[in-house]
Amino acid sequence: MKMKSNTVILHTAALFIMPLQLMFSIFLLLRGHDEPGGGFIAGLVAASAFVLYAFSFGAESTRKLLRVAPRDLLAAGLLFGLASTIPSLLSGQPALTAHWWEVPLPGDGYLKLSTPLIFDIGVYLAVLGTIMIFVVGLMESDE
Amino acid sequence: MSSAVVYPILLPLLAGALSLALWRSVRWQRTLGVVFNAALLWASIWLLQEVMEHGFVTMEMGSWPAPFSIVLVADVLAAIMVVLTGIIGLAIAIYSLVSTPRGHEKFGYYPLMHLLLAGVAGSFLTGDIFNLFVWFEVMLLASFALLTLGGERAQMEGAIKYVTLNLFSSAIFLTAVGLLYGMVGTLNMADIAQKVAQVEDPGMLTVVAMLFMVSFGIKAAAFPLFFWLPASYHTPQVAVSALFAGLLTKVGVYALFRMFTLIFTQDVDYTHTILLWAASLTMLTGVLGAAAQFEFRRILSFHIISQIGYMMLGLALYTPLALIGGVFYIMHHIIVKTNLFLVSGITYRLLGSYELKDLGGVYKHKPWLAILFLIPALSLAGIPPLSGFFAKFIVIRAGIEAEAYVVTGIALLVGLLTLYSMIKIWAEVFWKKLPEHVTNTARLEGRIKDKHNWAFYVPVVGLAVCTLIIGLNGQPIYELAEKAATQLLNPQLYIDAVLGGQQP
Which in B42, B124, B348, B414 has the greatest CB count within 10 A? Predict the structure, then answer.
């Protein structure tokens, strides 16, 4: 149980910082299509949030917080990545050709969805899953 | 454009992701392993048909035009290699059903196997040199994990050598890619091929060519940097050994074929002469190393090295016939070598050892198994009418026509020594009496019957049939190799297929 620290400062700070990090990671994920950001860096930021939580509350409670096994996150990420090739292959285009859909919203706005976004979500989950496998695995082998 | 070229990569990736998602159910992972590898074989045969029809099948990923996108390119050679990947993948998937220990299956054997196959197929199909590096890494990463699965002492020892030398090779590869990019400003192989002629400093280009040769030489286990292979290939469980033996080094050989026919042909006298000597020494050291070994899989590992020499010889002579021989040799070798490893796994199952001194008497109890060993073994040594005879015959004939008598002499000598090694295994494992000190003979004598033994024999028989078909019905295979060689000798065809014939 070495890796679990008991300082009040870390506990309190982690609980404050973690939601911010997670929100920031979603922001990076969505912003990444044309501007700096994207699935990889967003996944890293999300992973750092969970790692911070793991440092202050231990591996066991991090597993509980994640609800799904990190390995399943990785698998889901890979499947998302592969799923993003389906629209292009179905329409007979080269694999990974971008498809865009505009979903009208109430009011004047519309939501822009695309296969690169699906791919980015896949990368996000895969990066998060991989890092959590490493970190939680290492912490548990230490305990 | 046809989507056939992308499925051999997508299918194993999908299978890997699904096996990962079904981590808890080994039963499902096994089913997926067989189903998806059968699908891979089907997809690869489809690709070969498409390639035979159109000459080249290309796909620009994401619809970005070449040379800016990553292009997948299948010419005849690449399609042949992918078909072989499919055959080996299916054989290994079936064999794994019974040979893989439960513990390995639970710790990700199947996802890693699919990832490895995706890496191999990707390496064959990509037309982008940096993408080739990425696929190499995918393949190596999976192979590192497969090699150490189980975590025995000998495995770790072998893995350290394997990982160190392969990472070294990757570092050289990356350096070479960087230097090449600095000179021609593109990563698309077809684009590089048409721009290398305009490079101002041909000397530097030769330096880069040599960097590529060293890097791929290490991965192909060519002389002098082969020693990672016999140090590691006999350590993992046998299905992994067989998979590695069939495919991994051949990816290095394929990359050599690609680079030294498409891109680095400006100083053939220099580069291909070095290849020629490397090939001869590879053949010789490999076979001599095998002669000194007395462990089933170690003997076979050293023979991989000597066989790599023959394939490189085909490339190094650089005549149409020699290239046909090289391609033919690759086809023959992948099937035969995997099969020999699979047979070694069956004898291990029967007697619990790979050491020749602890084996014996298999012919007496299992004559059919002995025949199944003889087919690939004699084929490897080049006895007519099996596949190895024609492969060796074409290469050696090309050597004589090119008047490279010394090298041809070495190739003949190596053939003879290969026969010696195979006879040694035959005599020790199959022919001699069972040694007195071997007591666990219940399986051999048939007193213990295992339920699912068919899965051991189906792949072995299947691969033996492939060997026989290549040997007895050599003409279509020869024509296939001829088509591949024709394309290799006319890089302009490749360039036109990728860049659409127009100059950028």
Answer: B124
